[in-house]
Amino acid sequence: MKKPVVNLSQAEMYDIIRRPVVTEKSTMGSQYNQVTFRVPLDATKPEIKAAVEGVFKVKVTAVNTLRSQGKVKRFRGFIGKRNDTKKAVVTLAQGQTIDVTTGV
User: Fold this and answer.
1) How would CATH label the architecture of 10-69+77-92?
2) Which parts of 9-103 fold into alpha helices (H)?
């Protein structure tokens, strides 16, 4: 099976990688060379891989994505809904690192 080739401009790369997810669970993934990012709902795995490789100049071996539906919450009697979100867990090649504490 052929892998799709994705050509992204620099601006599109920064649009795909919204921000890193810094939680206890995501930082535990760093021992497996994994970094977690918040991405748009319509971003595909090949686009995410191309964006991470282009912005951070690293080699990506795998991209896993997960979508979470927004919860319905109440605030002072009014019903509201949180936004749907999508996260990408990016696995880097051996010896590659991304420091998420510094800015891009």
Assistant:
1) 2-Layer Sandwich (3.30)
2) 10-16, 24-28, 45-56
